[in-house]
Predict the structure.
Amino acid sequence: MRSKTPVLQTAILGLLNDAPLHGYELRKRLNLMLGSFRALSYGSLYPALKTLVARGLITGTEQTAAPAALAPALSGKRARIVYELTADGKEHLQSVLASSGPAAWEDESFDVRFAFFAQTDAETRIRILEGRRTRLTERLEAVRESAARTRERLDEYTLELQRHGLEQVEREVRWLDGLITTERDRSFGTPRSGRVRPSSTPHPAETPGQEPGARRPEDPGTSITKERG
């Protein structure tokens, strides 16, 4: 999990920015929110928490146990530690969420960054979405070229798996196109229709007659075209 440690730490800080949490609740929320961490174990979580405490980004406070007379069932249980952000932790989190370089749109971190878009400014959101779209489009083109070269040597099941993978990437590119359009409309003005596309629609419908993945007419020119694998 070493390669995912910074991503996990960002996820922890983002959740603690909403409210103090103990380890069990943190793990549950990570597993619910972030697909990348559905298999997250305590063996990964607690070392990350320990590191964040050592860096002064969070603090851990032992939760006061209820008196045994009032809650005898709890008297033998180990007290839980509640974690919360420090001032340095809040500042560090804001610095991370304001970044929009390649690390923000790679497979290892995009889900986490997207999960905290509500805490991210509009320009940074657009740069991350465009970067992700570019990365995925490049990957899509590379896979298509490879498929064209090897098609005759592959059996029908391998070809079907390859087709399925291509469809997943194409679908995410279309999803990103819709998100980018929504963010631009919201930030820089209304689209030609005079209405802003509702942000609650994660996969906007294609324009009638438009080929899947094609540039939308209202999209400003951009060099970014990419998707998620």
